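User: structure tokens for this one?
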Amino acid sequence: MIYIIIGVVILLILWAIATYNSFVALIERVNNAKSQIAIQIESRWDAIKSLIDATKQYSKHEAETLENITAQRTAVGSGSSISDMEQAEAQLGQVMGRLIAVSEAYPDLKASNVYQTTMQKIDKYEDNVRQSRMIYNDTVTRYNRKIRAFPASLLANMFGFVSKPYFQGTEAKQEMPSWD
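Assistant:
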């Protein structure tokens, strides 16, 4: 009888260790996925800075306005919250709207090789951000499901594992301007 009790206790301890380690692995995947989004957002901002430099040749005032907007943008990093990243997205939309307006006012800018190449890069980074968000949301789904499922939820609560937020689609993101 004592061997059965010891066996059950050992199995419970092994289960608790395995479950805790799976929580740790999942939270690391969530953090990694969020970091990938931050990297793509920063790369996209770098491409936008190149576009602003190209704009300087055509309109110094517009370039200065765009530089002021980008200087005020929210810095995004792996430690940034989802709301910080979404705020950076809103600022990006504002800058892109201005850039498109400038390119319409200056057809030579829109036709320049630098402009076209940079817009292709921005488009690529936009796709990468979109893909990274989908990966993040899928990873968060796995993590949130794991910490809510019984009996693992008992350990999750005991060790302070809490659910993570998702990226949400907004009308502004769904209606981003076309770069063509």
